[in-house]
Design brief:
The structure is a single chain. The protein is of the alpha+beta class. It has two domains: 145 residues, Creatinase/prolidase N-terminal domain (Creatine Amidinohydrolase, Chain A, domain 1); 221 residues, Alpha-Beta Complex (Creatine Amidinohydrolase), CATH 3.90.230.10. 33% of the residues lie in helices and 20% in strands. The protein has a six-stranded mixed sheet with strand order 4-3-2-1-5-6, sandwiched between helices. Strands 7, 8, 9 and 10 form a four-stranded antiparallel sheet that branches. A hairpin with a 5-residue loop joins strand 2 and strand 3. The longest helix has 24 residues. The two termini are 34 Å apart. Keywords: Signal.
Length: 440
């Protein structure tokens, strides 16, 4: 079963990879089994969203590699070594290099062709993996035997390509043991984070990527609305989970949603405890789906029945905070300012100070990972010690929340796109607790 956290790592082509083979491009984890039984009318009416966006091409990935090399020049990084990072290797090369005790790596030098490092007995599989990548027919695959050091191999390969000193960037997801051994194998090199390159590329979306995000968002809202129209009193979170699976099956996409009810909506990421919908319950539905490797992340809070006056008031405060973040965001603005704008609305409404009721940042970058660089927060270590600023075509969640422990919480989450001189939401804002899917 896909969960919120497993979907965070879902990415391109083979969006949900097989657990047994973290490197396989073709093998995919079977979609969660769709529950049998009557399909509610609202779900039966859902359209298919499959195939609405074209797959990414090798030319697009080659352009990404060229941009990475530009950033390496700006950051004075001689090469980047990517390992244990499925989304980074998919982004640049359409190759899935997941976690293993044996090192597989994609190395991109600033002034030479990228190459793959893998165990010798995996050579043929590596060749097969590269068939549909920018490296097909010309990639260099360097192999190491079980009694050899892959780290010494990388050091030697970098030296052969002129990288004998200076900075080499390591994937932020690389295992400590890998990073440590590589540092010992190449003491003349200075190892730094590759995030200024990988995050620098991935944080700026092109139109193809934006089309994926828009389509994923539209599909998620359509699923949420169909599920909302299918709810009945007495349903449990498990029942609603089954409705979500039915709905995504109709769209042709892989996705998930978590539901929390009443006092559990005051816990930002919810609870596993059994929960049941009652008349007057407040519900929070959160998560998303994947389109060509790009994920949505949307939250809707609504009521089953009539909301209380306090629920309506809190909803209005949270919506105003979401709008404040939207109006603040534009190129050149520090990322922290967007968070502070939303936080001020909630504190000024009597729910302060700072993080007492609004307990998390207002947003995170979104793209191939549900949470990725950069983040709408004061605590943001993106490129260096300077406060990072917004740039055109960055994408984020805009998700303020107000959580009253023991009572209820409200969170509204849509995806925020930084335009040339302002910002837009890729999905319509929720109108109210009574009309969460009305068109503004």
């Amino acid at each position: 079963m896909i969960t919120r956290r497993s979907l965070l790592g879902a990415s391109a082509g083979a969006a949900l990879s097989t657990v047994a083979s973290p490197f396989a491009l073709q093998a995919q984890r079977p979609a969660a089994e769709v529950p049998q039984g009557p399909v509610p009318e609202a779900i039966a009416r859902l359209p298919s969203f499959a195939g609405k966006v074209a797959p990414f091409t090798n030319d697009e990935r080659l352009a990404r590699i060229a941009r990475a090399k530009e950033l390496m020049g700006q950051q004075k990084i001689q090469a980047i070594v990517l390992a244990n990072s499925t989304s980074n290797t998919l982004y640049f090369a359409n190759v899935r290099l997941g976690a293993s005790e044996r090192l597989w790596a994609l190395v991109i030098p600033a002034r030479a062709k990228p190459f793959i490092v893998c165990p010798a007995f995996e050579h043929d599989r590596a060749v097969e993996m590269l068939e549909d990548t920018p490296f097909a027919h010309e990639a260099e695959i360097l192999t190491w035997e079980e009694d050899e050091s892959p780290f010494a191999l990388i050091a030697s390969a970098l030296k052969a390509r002129g990288v004998t000193s200076g900075n080499v960037g390591l994937d932020e997801n690389m295992k400590f043991t890998f990073a440590n051994e590589l540092m010992k194998a190449a003491p003349a090199l200075h190892f730094v984070s590759a995030t200024p390159v990988t995050g620098g590329c991935r944080s700026i979306k092109d139109e193809h990527e934006l089309d994926c995000l828009r389509t994923a968002g539209a599909a998620t809202l359509a699923v949420y609305e169909a599920v909302y129209l299918s709810l009945k009193e007495g349903m449990t979170t498990r029942d609603v989970h089954n409705l979500v699976l039915m709905a995504y099956a109709k769209t042709g996409l892989q996705g998930e949603a978590s539901l929390n009810i009443d006092e559990f909506t005051a816990v930002p990421h919810g609870s596993r405890k059994p929960q049941t919908i009652r008349e007057g319950s407040i519900l929070m539905l959160d998560d998303g789906c994947v389109v060509e490797g790009y994920t949505s992340d949307i939250t809707r809070t609504f009521c089953f029945g009539k909301p209380t006056d306090k629920m309506r008031k809190v909803f209005d405060i949270v919506k105003a905070a979401q709008t404040a973040a939207l109006k603040t965001a534009r190129p050149g603005i520090p990322l922290a300012n967007v968070d502070l704008a939303a936080r001020k609305v909630i504190a000024d409404a009597g729910y302060g100070p700072a993080h007492k009721y609004f307990t998390h940042r207002v947003g995170h970058g979104i793209g191939m990972d549900m949470h990725e660089w950069p983040y709408l927060s004061e605590n943001n270590m993106f490129l260096d010690d300077r406060a990072p600023i917004l740039a055109a075509n960055m994408t984020f969640s805009d998700e303020p929340g107000l959580y009253i422990k023991g009572e209820f919480g409200v969170r509204l989450e849509d995806e925020l796109h930084i335009t040339a001189n302002a910002a837009e939401l890729l999905t319509p804002q929720s109108l109210s607790l009574d009309e969460p899917f009305g068109k503004a």
